[in-house]
Amino acid sequence: MQANYQEYKRQLQKIADVRMAAAVLNWDQETYLPSKAAGIRAQQLSTLSGIAHEMFTEKALGEILLTLIKKNAELSERELSNVKHSLEDYQREQKYPTEWVVRLSQTIAEAYHNWVGARENNDFNQFAPSLAKLVEMKREEAKMLGYKEHPYDALLHLYEPGLTTAEMTRVFDSVKEPLKALLAKIKSQTQVNDDFMREQYDKDKQWEFGLKLLKNIGFDFEAGRQDLSIHPFTTNFAASDVRLTTKVDEEDFNAMTWSCLHEGGHGLYEQGLPEDEYGLPGGEAVSLGIHESQSRLWENMVGRSFTYWKCHYSSLQEQFPEALKRVSLEEFYAAINKVEPSLIRIEADELTYHFHVLIRFEIEKALIEGSLEVAQIPETWNAKYKEYLGVEIPNDVKGCMQDIHWSHGSFGYFPTYSIGSFYAAQFFYYAEQAIPELASQLESGHCATLLGWLRENIHQYGRQYTADQLCQRIGGESLNPAYFLKYAEAKYKAIYHF
Amino acid sequence: MQANYQEYKRQLQKIADVRMAAAVLNWDQETYLPSKAAGIRAQQLSTLSGIAHEMFTEKALGEILLTLIKKNAELSERELSNVKHSLEDYQREQKYPTEWVVRLSQTIAEAYHNWVGARENNDFNQFAPSLAKLVEMKREEAKMLGYKEHPYDALLHLYEPGLTTAEMTRVFDSVKEPLKALLAKIKSQTQVNDDFMREQYDKDKQWEFGLKLLKNIGFDFEAGRQDLSIHPFTTNFAASDVRLTTKVDEEDFNAMTWSCLHEGGHGLYEQGLPEDEYGLPGGEAVSLGIHESQSRLWENMVGRSFTYWKCHYSSLQEQFPEALKRVSLEEFYAAINKVEPSLIRIEADELTYHFHVLIRFEIEKALIEGSLEVAQIPETWNAKYKEYLGVEIPNDVKGCMQDIHWSHGSFGYFPTYSIGSFYAAQFFYYAEQAIPELASQLESGHCATLLGWLRENIHQYGRQYTADQLCQRIGGESLNPAYFLKYAEAKYKAIYHF
C-alpha cells in the first residue's frame, strides 16, 4: 500500500511542478513581462495548464486513488485525508467534458477582452453578450457538478468547500441590519480627518517601510519576496517560495502599507503550509475564506489596531516627518480606520466592504438561479448601492464593471471575502483568549506568538480539515459573524465617539 | 502534406512552450529566487525537462518527420530545412539511453556540488573524482553520437555544428604565433593607465547608462528587459521576450558597461530571430559561435572602438565627472583596450582571451582522446599559462577551477568563444564594406544600419544555414581568423604606438 501511496505522491508532485511552473509564468506576466510578449506568454500558459490537466485526468491516477481508498488501513490520518481530497478533485475534474473546458477558456478570453474594451468605452453593452455566455456556462457547470439545494452552491463549493447559498444568506442576514445600524451611527458623528494620508510619501521610503512591517509580522524573505505589480496579489511556487506583490502611490499612503500586510497575511499562510506535503492536498490552502481570514487578520485586526501602531507609529513619523510630524497617533489611528460609503470595493473600509460583497452575492445568486438577466445588472447594481450604501453610481466603470472576477467567470468567489473577514475576527478573538499577553506583545512589536498560534491551529493542516472543522477545533463553534460585529462596534465606538 | 507540416509545427511549438517555461524558471532562479527555494526549483526544472524530453522523443513525432522528409516536394526551402534539422535533433536524442541521461544529470549535480566545495577549500582533489566521471561519460557520449576523426568532434558538434577538432586546431595554429608576436610587441611598450576605471562609479547611474547604450544599439525593451544576476547571461522565452542580466560594481567601471553590450549583442540576435518560426529550427540560433559573434561584435568591434566613444564619451563624463573629468577620450579609449596577461578568462582583454580558450581546448581535447588524466589537469594548466601568457597560477581556484563549464559537463563549449570573436571581426569587416558610411554612423550614435545588416544577413535565417554557409553567403569564404588578426594589429598599434 505504501508503494501505491508513494506512486500517488510522485504523480501529484509532478503535476504540482507543472502547475507551479505555470504560476511562475503568471507571476512573471504580472511583474516583469515585456509588453510584446503577452501573446506568446498566454500560449505558453495554456500549454502548461493543458499538460497539467492531462496528467491529472490520467486513468492510472484514478485507479491508484481507488485502490488506496479501498485498502486504506495502512494509511495515516493525513495520508487518508490526502487521498480522499485527491479523489474528490479527480472525480470533479472528470465531470468536465474537454470540449466544455476549451470552450470555457475561449469564452473567458473573449469576455476579458470585452470587459477591458467596455471599460475603456464605459459601455456595458459591449461586455453584456459575453458575460451572458459565461453565466450560461456557469449554470451548465453547476448542473455538471451537481448540488442539493441551489445551483449557486456548486460554484461556491469551488472556492469555499462546504459553503452553501443558504448558509451564506444566513450569514449576511445576521450582519446586514447590525452593520446598517453601525454605519448610521458613524454617519451621524463628525467625520475623521485623513487629509494627511494624501501628502507626499516618498516611494522608496514607503517600500522600505513595507518590507520592515512584513519582516516584523514574520514573513520569511529567504522563502519569498515582494515585487511591484498593477494589482497586489500573492502567489506561491512552494512553501519555500512565496511571492507577494504590492503597488506604491507617492500621493496616497493608503495604497501600499495595508496591501503589504494583507498580502503578507496570505503569504504567511502559504509559508506555513507543510513543506513535505508539497503538491498534495495537505500542502494546499483549505479554502479562499480561510486564506482571506489570514490576510484580513494581519491587515485589519493587527495592522489597523491602535496597539500595533503604538509600536510602529514613531518610526513611521521619522520616515515621513513632513506629512506626519503634526499628526498624533490617535489622529493617525482614526484616519486609517475612517468609514465612508464609496463606489469601489477594493478601496472600501472594513465596515462598508461587506455591503459591496453582499451586493455581488445577491446579483450572482440571482444570475445563476435565472431570476436576473445580465441586461438588468446595471440597474440592479445601482439600486442596491443606493439602498445599502446610499451612494449614486455615476457610471458602470465605477459600478458593475469595476471587478475583474466576472470577466474571468469567477462566480462564487466574492462571498469568500466576507467569510474571510468574519473568520479573521473570530480567530483573532480565540487567539486573544489563548494568548493573554497578546496585546502587550503586539504593542512591543512581537508578532511571533500570534503567528505561532496561527501556524499551529490553521496553517499546518493544509486541507486536512475543512474550514468549519478548523473553526470547531479551535473554538468549538462554526463561523459566527457576531465576533466581527463585536470587534467593529468596539473599534468604531472608540474612533467615532458614540 | 501541409497538414503533416502543421501537426509537426504544433508539436514543436508545444515542446518549445515547455522548454521556454523551464527557461523562465531558470531565469527566475538566477535573478529573484529566494534562497530556501533552491531545492524545490531544481525539482520543478527537472520535471519540465523530463516532460519536454518525453514529448520530443515520442514515436509519433519521428513518424511525422520521416513522412515529411520522404514527400518533401510541397515544402518550402525553409520548411524543408526545419524538418531536416528537427529529424537530426530527433535522431540524436534517440541515441541517448534514458538511464544514461538520468545518470548524467546526477553526475553533473554531484560534480557541480563538488566544484563549489573544492573552490571553497581550494582543493582540486575534492573535484577530481566527479570530474573524472564526467570526462568518462563524455567519452561515452562521443561514442554514442559517433564521429569520423576525433571523439572530441562529436562534442564540438553539440555547440558548433560542423566544427571539427582538426579545423579548430588549424584555426588556433593560424593565430597562435601572430598573437604571441603581437602580445610581445605590446609588452615591450609603455603600459596604458586605467586607474581611473576603479574610481567610485554610482550604481544607479551605471545602470541608467547601461540601459541607454542598450537602447542605442537597438535592443527593444518592449520585447525584453535587463535584470541583475551574479554572472551576466542572456536567455529568451521567444523573440518577443529576451532577458539580459548584468552585474554592477561601484568600484570597477569595467564590470558592467561591456557586459551590457555583450549580452545586448546576444539579445539583438534573439530578438532578430523570426517570430513566426517560434519553436522551430528556423527560429533558433544556428550555433554558439555565431551567437558569440553577435555579442563580441557589439561588445568589441563597436563597444571598444574609438568611433563609438566619440559619440558617447562626453555623456559618460557628465555622468561621472569626478572619475572622468580629467580623462581624455584618447586615454579612456586606451584604458578600455588595455592588454595584460592575467589569470581569469572572463576578465581577460580581447587579445589574451584567446590563449585562455586555447589552453582549455588543448586540455579538453587531450582529456576526451584519453591522452591526459584528470589528475594531471592542474600541472598542465599551470604549465600552459606559463608558456602562453607568462603568468604563474597561484592556486587552482584562480587556475583550472575558475570556470563552471566542466562541472556542468560542457566539453566542447569553450572553443566557440574564440570562433565567435573571429567571426565577429570577419562579419564586421564585411559590414564595413557593405555600409561605406558605417564609421560616421557609429560616430553619430546611429547603429540601426549595422543592426539591419546583421538582421538581414544572419538573424533572419535561424538555423536555415549553417555557420559556414552564412559566412560563405556573406563574404564568399569560410571562417578566416586573419580578419581578427588584422583588426587586433591595427587597434593595438594605435594604442601602444609601435
Kindly summarize this structure in a few lines.
2 copies of one chain form a homodimer. The first copy, chain A, is mostly helical and 498 residues long.
Any chance you could write out the topology, listing elements then pairs?
Two copies of one chain form a homodimer.
Chain A: H1 2-31, H2 38-56, H3 59-70, H4 77-94, H5 98-121, H6 124-145, H7 151-159, H8 165-188, H9 203-217, E1 224-228, E2 234-238, E3 241-246, H10 257-272, H11 288-302, H12 306-319, H13 321-324, H14 329-335, H15 353-369, H16 377-389, H17 415-434, H18 438-443, H19 448-457, H20 467-475, H21 482-496
Parallel strand pairs in A: 1-3
Antiparallel strand pairs in A: 2-3
Helix pairs in contact in A: 1-2, 1-3, 3-4, 5-6, 6-7, 8-21, 9-10, 10-11, 11-17, 12-14, 15-16, 17-21
Helix and strand element order of chain A? HHHHHHHHHEEEHHHHHHHHHHHH
The largest β sheet of chain A comes out as:
3 strands, mixed
Shape of chain A: globular
State the oligomer: homodimer
Query: Which sequence of strands runs across the widest sheet of chain A?
Result: 1-3-2
- CA-to-CA gap between the ends of chain A? 64 Å
Q: Give the C-alpha Rg of chain A.
A: 23 Å
* Total discrete domains of chain A: 2
The CATH architecture of the largest domain in chain A is Orthogonal Bundle
Strand content of chain A: under 5%
Helix percent band of chain A: 55-70%
CATH topology annotation of the largest domain in chain A: Neurolysin, domain 3
Q: What is the number of helices of chain A?
A: 21
